Amino acid sequence: MTIENFLLMRNEISLLAVILLILIGEIFVSNKKTVINIAIILFIVHTIIGFLPLEIGKLFGGSFRTNELVHFFKSVLNVGVIIVLLQANDWIKEKLSIENKSSEFYILLFATLLGMYYMISAGDFLMLFIGIELATIPTAALVAYETSKKKSAEAGIKFILSAALATGVSLFGISMLYASTGSIYFTEVSTLLTNTPLAVLGFVFFFAGIAFKVSLVPFHFWTADTYEGAPISVASYLSVISKASAVFVMVMVLFTVFQSLSAIWVNMIYGIAIATMFIGNLFALRQQNMKRFLAYSSIAQAGFILLGMIANTDLGITTVVYFAAIYIFSNLAAFGVVQSISHKTGKENIDDYNGLYRTNPKMSLVMLMALFSLAGIPPVAGFFGKFFLFTAAASKGYYLLVFIAVINVTISLYYYLLVVQAMFLRKGENPIPFYKNSIAAKAGLVIAVLGIFVIGLYSPIYEYIADISNFVFK
Amino acid sequence: MDYSYTILIPLLPFITFLILGLGSFKIKPNLAGLIGSASLGTSLILSLYTAYNYFIKVGKVDGAYEAVYAFKTTWMNFTPTLHIDMGILIDPISVMMLIVVTLIAFLVNVYSIGYMKGDTGFTKFFAFLSLFSFSMLGLVLATNLFQIYIFWELVGVSSFLLIGFYYTKPSAIIAAKKAFIVTRFADLFFLIGILLMGYYTGTFDFAELTSADSSQLAEWTSVTFMGMSIITFSLILIFIGGAGKSAMFPLHIWLPDAMEGPTPVSALIHAATMVVAGVYLVARLFNVYYVADDGLALEVVAYVGAFSSLFAAIIALTQNDIKRVLAFSTMSQIGYMMLALGVSGYEGHDGLGYMASMWHLFTHAMFKGLLFLAAGSIIHAVHSNMLKDMGSLRKKLPITHITFLIATLAIAGIPFFSGFFSKDEILLAAHHHNKFLYFVGLFVAGLTAFYMFRLYFGIFWGKEKTYSDKVHENPKSMTIPLMILAFMSIAAGYIPFSKYITADRQGFEGHIDWNMAAIAIATAVLGIALAYVFYKKETNYPEKVTKAFGIFYKWAYDKFYMDELYFFITRQIIFKRISAPFAWFDKKIIDGTMDLIGNTTVKTSEKIKGTQSGRVQDYAMYFIGGIVVITMVVKYIM
After folding, report:
1. CA–CA min distance A364, chain B (Å)
2. Predicted ipTM?
3. What is the pTM of this model?
4. Which residues of A touch B605 (CB under 8 A)?
5. CA atoms in the 13 A half-sphere facing the CB of B105
6. Does B226 lie at the interface with A, CB-CB under 8 angstroms?
7. What is d(CA B98, CA B50) in angstroms, rounded to the nearest whole number?
8. Which pLDDT tens digit goes with each residue over B473-513?
9. Are strands B68-77 and B83-90 parallel, antiparallel or unpaired?
10. Do the Cβ atoms of A410 and B184 come within 8 Å?
11. How far is B387 from chain A (nearest CA, A)?
């Protein structure tokens, strides 16, 4: 093994370097704000390097593998993280740096991202498990980051307990899979796996662990409580970056490792998709808190993603990855507005948004675009994302499922409109006063909105994804 | 012929929207109205120029009007065979719709300068109007199903903003949401229809879909499900989408409520443009409708259209809010257009229904737009929507009175007004195809004449009322659009439509079948006479007019038993026994079912909230429970 081989892990190495540099900067630079700026700049550099083309191949006997799709997805996650960081900038500068814990925020966040990199590059269950753990445990610390708030601590505890349960179950599942095949390598397991009771049980246990991260019903209960208590940037990170990476892993293992069990998991996904869409939507209907509202809406969105998975073809991969990319930008735009308003005024309820258009028209328009994209109204990207997911499911003849999804789109439209209505059509008794955003927050929103339009309207992106959509690792 | 300039027609309103929308806090109201009118005016001129080029200058090529792509670009390759294009399609119906949309939008814009004066958010209103015009024009010019769907939804969004414009009125907000959600619900069927269509035919393109030869068609229709080909299913699904926007039974429930919006908006959206989108959609795909399974889907269109037409006309008899009468009347007239499409053939003179439908769409846009704008003028003057607050307004509002009368005569189908010509062709087409539908159409024509004249007499004649001195004719910016539309309500009947707009694009010589026309005229006159007897009584109607209607007047009025009979039939039987239950059915059953679905959703949501207890122990239990259930299902059921 030569040093060139290690360059396959360029993304991981460069992110690790970023983490170490922040650590060193924390020791030698006394001004906290400088460290914050350094951290963001380093990460942007890391993202730009990430866009450079990369050799594809395997390392460590197939434990770590990468191809164009994996590499592309890492870059998408990077861009998402940049948006999260920009939107969180004011909060970090004005709150965390005073409490002297701003650098740790970056280190923890980047550590979880590193974990996600390993998750999606994993070629065996061990690497996958380590990745998941690395992506989960620091997140619990981030959720409980606002130590002064009781709710934040409560959310942290709930998250770590639920996550521990999910991890335990998942690990149990892996051990059963090992017992039935004698291997932990994906390529070997996929050929050796047969429809035995032990293997099926192992699969369901393992699946539950991933489903927890995607917050599919009935493994979703932690979501709303955690999002509500967590700092908003952490909630948005969880709902977007963490969820997207878990979706990617789910597609990968279902389509490759568990291909021989596809008869089982297709039906399972069918049922879970219906449950997830309905539960997410029905709960979202009656939320007053914007964070909880977005939590349930994100559960429902996960239900829609399953429609692409059920296709079990390359078209399925394409539509899921495409939708995930759109979802990242749409949800980040929505969370960005919630974050900005909450940071400036402390208001987080839908009623507080009454008459927002009059006082802050630009913020309202960003929110409008984000919600329309989530609701799937053309010509914003979310529409194309949903349309392609539905096509993928319909191409395999799941018309009933598409019909149910369509009903859910209608339900979701109702609650997304509630917010639109509050902003545009209602008059606020005590509307949020006009304020100016910092440059970082503005940039965060602008990138997200651009993403919503560009991914939807600039078709080469879809074609590129379609081109690289496969789980073939050379 | 290079039509690439046509891109400006939708683009100008879009740019206006951007300017007005982003600068809505800096641009002065009057300037906003001026910018909006100027840009739509330019679009109108360009549309007329396009029509001149298309129909006159270029004319027929090889005996038919060509479908021309002003431009077309592949926007996304979805699968190797299926791609999504964006472009501009110029053909007879799209050119016709360009004129309808730009003309009405322009006039509504001008009218709104007077009507909306002093309203807060004046500039925003014009921004929304421009956005709507842009979306509607994009819809009209679409080259394929996917593109039309995108603009279809944009039309929905902008109409949501316009209906909910009076944001201080809670009913307006509810109505806006209802309109959006009901139409969106229908649109989802449309979407599934597009999906199926694209999947089984391998194309979204209108030209490719409508020009398929018989072997291709046989291939497409070979996949069947429950005795119908998948193509027919998808056509019916697409029609559901169209029925949602065009307020066909039972998806019409949003239309009357949408009257909460500003009246000029109703004139634009609910008379001339958005509501006819469904008709336009069926016309766009007419060839496919006609050939797939021998026009099975077309039969559905015909019967839904006929029923909606009758249903709405009966309800219109009982309404006392003038805008609601107009709303139901619109539904009824669109039902007429659907009916005409449904009974149409394809080639040459067989395509009479198609031609009649498009013609009626055109004339209806003129006279119904006029009726709404005139209603707006009346409401603006007396500050009420209710018929009971009106009466003998003819002297107070002379221009409104005359223009309203012209429009009423046109919709009633009185000879030499535009509605007569188009309606006559529809009835003729129905008579050729299906006698039952013909009689439904004829009956509706009578009802239409009756309720429209009930409205007319009730507003402008009827009981003497004293108004405050403030009631006077409206400013010029409002009356001039009325006069232009009044002129069009007559002139539109003299356009030789059958030469230009037919299903096979070849045109034919149209003529009026006076035997058939006589029956229709008699029905209309009967309706008017009844309205006259019932609603004009309290005034001293000038003798001259009495004489013109003299025979009917005497016949109905002097002869006691006849009089009683009419009263009995209409008031006792039609109103109480038929109309009232219809209205009840509409309100309780149709509306009620929709409400029930909504309420159930909310209630279910309320009931399951207990599971989210906030206790991690419970969550763990559900987590494990979930695994157990999934395992059991996987193990024992699958």
Report:
1. 12
2. 0.77
3. 0.74
4. 282-283, 285-286
5. 36
6. no
7. 9
8. 677 778 888 888 888 888 888 888 778 888 777 777 777 77
9. antiparallel
10. yes
11. 29
